[in-house]
Specification:
The protein is an alpha/beta fold and about 500 residues long. Helices cover about 40% and strands about 15% of the residues. It has 22 helices and 16 strands. Helix 6 runs parallel beside helix 10 and helix 9 packs across helix 11. The structure holds flavin mononucleotide (FMN) and iron/sulfur cluster. The site of iron/sulfur cluster (SF4) has 14 residues, from helix 18 and helix 21. One of its GO terms (molecular function) is 4 iron, 4 sulfur cluster binding.
Length: about 500
């Protein structure tokens, strides 16, 4: 009997290793990625008659009784029934995450048995221009934050220089946004799909070398990506002749030291070159002068991992999903004060209300939802009365919102929005690379001004607004340029949290 216990970092943090060890004394245990239902981790699965049945959350103390239930086929209080039938799973459209949680992440055989390498094989037969055209047709936009069309970026790099010149593929796996974990879950659960996506990008633009820049806080993802690259080399997916073709492509992992700003693409490139992670002025754009001054594709993990499906099924099929200019699926990460947190992949277009209240099940505290911050620490706070906004790039922008990396952090009505605004400014002050004045100095002054308002000095409110405008329009990159969004959204939608404050408030938001 085959039993699965996740190796995902979240499941491991909750005792999955001890569970795997206990069950491994009786059964053949395979370590898989997570299904994304973090509140059910560690989620143990057992296959019966070709159907995978779940038990969760299985702590180390439950392992013996779960083993007994698996052995006897009997009932257990933690039994969940067929995993694919759980409402969280059934409501998804899992394209990029199709294999995550399903296969052994390091098995090339299982990867292929579940549709892996179909995209790369097709890409090899197509050549550069048609691959780029397929990605353009899919409407795929960068999942790292800015939402720039991936196909157009590739087209620029493909056309950038003579074929003989070196070009690079750089995968941005810095994933610094609070409440974001899609990149990590993908790299831990299906690293081969990222390798396949990067190899396709290499063939498309004429690059033979790639790098995955992973934050040092992700030791499991680093280990699994490195192991998967080794397996891919052995299987001939990487190397001098990709899958026996005339194309060469290889790649390696580079570990960042853990600065939020190193997720910004030019800062990342500096760090990758061994320099201090300071933002570079654009132009030149990395597509023309990137790593070591050469034309470079810099794409997020999810952008690159979405490409194999697009190549295997066609850009037009992908573009059928979604709304407006937000095509395809988006792995939404639901976190914060929420009952059911985790990763949920769906076509663009669900309302924020559906995501927070139906999928996420409302707050964990049971109190009313006050707001959700969408798009990481630089994203706006969307108040609950605007939750009918559809989840899409332009749609969220109508509410001054940012889709970003699609992380959602939920807050209940006890949240103190002034404290959250202060956190945004403080975060910017701590993480600023220091290159430009509005961000370096403005964020420090922003913290001081919010502290004045907290002491009841409301003359600080117009100063804060003015400061936010200066940072928004005068900063060199989006760290200083977007920090005003959470601040101003908190101030605009929840002015009462900024007025009439003479005493320190309860520490509810912390
Ligand atoms: C301060 C800052 C931090 C960023 N952090 C990340 C990150 O952790 N991961 C990421 O993919 N993009 C991040 N970005 C966006 C990148 O600069 C860039 O747009 C992205 O890597 C491009 O890939 P994509 O087109 O596939 O999204 C960040 C941007 C800024 C300004
Ligand atoms: S906005 Fe901040 S992080 Fe960006 S370049 Fe200026 S100082 Fe550096």
């Amino acid at each position: 009997m085959r039993v699965w216990v996740p190796l995902d970092a979240a499941a491991r943090a909750l005792g999955a290793d001890a569970v795997a060890e206990a069950l491994g004394r009786e059964f053949t245990v395979t370590r898989n990625g997570t299904r994304g239902m973090v509140w059910l981790e560690p989620l143990v699965e057992v296959e019966r008659d070709g159907v995978r049945h779940g038990y969760g959350p299985v702590g180390p103390e439950d392992a013996a009784s779960v083993a007994q239930a698996i052995r006897s086929g009997g009932d257990h209080p933690l039994a969940l029934g067929p995993v694919e039938e759980l409402p969280w799973m059934k409501a998804q459209t899992r394209l990029t995450f199709a294999r995550v949680g399903v296969i052994d992440p390091l098995s090339v055989e299982e990867y292929q048995a579940h549709g892996g390498l179909e995209g790369l094989r097709r890409a090899i037969g197509m050549g550069s221009e048609p691959i780029v055209a397929e990605v353009v047709e899919s409407g795929l936009r960068g999942r790292g934050g800015a939402g720039f069309p991936t196909g157009i970026k590739w087209k620029t790099v493909a056309a950038a220089a003579a074929a003989a010149e070196r070009k690079y593929i750089v995968c941005n796996a810095d994933e610094g946004d609070s409440g974001s974990f899609a990149d990590r879950m993908l790299m831990e659960g299906d690293p081969l799909v990222l390798i396949e996506g990067m190899a396709i990008a290499g063939i498309a633009v004429g690059a033979v070398q790639g790098y995955v820049y992973i934050r040092s806080e992700y030791p499991d993802a680093i280990r699994l990506m490195e192991a998967a690259i080794g397996k891919a080399r052995q299987a001939g997916i990487l190397g001098q002749s990709v899958l026996g073709s005339a194309h060469a492509y290889d790649m390696e992992v580079r570990v960042g030291a853990g600065a939020y700003v190193c997720g910004e693409e030019t800062s990342l490139l500096n760090s990758l070159e061994g320099k201090r992670g300071v933002v570079r002025a654009k132009p030149p754009i990395p597509a023309l002068e990137g790593f070591l001054g050469r034309p470079t594709v810099v794409n997020n993990v999810i952008s690159l991992a979405s490409v194999p499906w697009i190549l295997a099924h066609g850009g037009a099929e992908y573009a059928k999903l979604g709304i407006g200019r937000s095509k395809g699926t988006i792995p939404i990460q639901i976190a914060g004060n929420v009952r059911h947190g985790g990763l949920f992949e769906a076509a663009f277009g669900m309302s924020l209300r559906q995501i927070v209240e139906e999928i996420g099940g409302g707050t964990a505290s049971g109190r009313p939802v006050k707001a959700a911050q969408v798009g990481g620490p630089l994203g706006s706070y969307i108040p609950h009365w605007n939750f009918d906004v559809p989840f899409g790039y332009e749609e969220l922008a109508t509410k001054e919102g940012l889709l970003g990396h699609a992380g959602i952090t939920v807050f209940d009505d006890s949240a103190d929005m002034l404290k959250l605004a202060r956190f945004a400014m403080e975060f910017c002050a701590v993480e600023s690379c220091g290159k430009c004045t509005p961000c370096r100095i403005g964020s420090v002054r922003g913290v001081e001004t919010i502290d004045r308002i907290a002491q009841g000095d409301e003359t600080g409110i117009p100063i804060l607004t003015d400061l936010c405008n200066t940072m928004k329009w005068g900063s060199l990159c989006a760290l200083g340029g977007f920090a005003p969004f959470p601040v101003m959204s908190a101030l605009t939608h929840f002015p009462d949290d900024f007025r009439g404050r003479s005493e320190p408030r309860k520490e509810a938001a912390e």
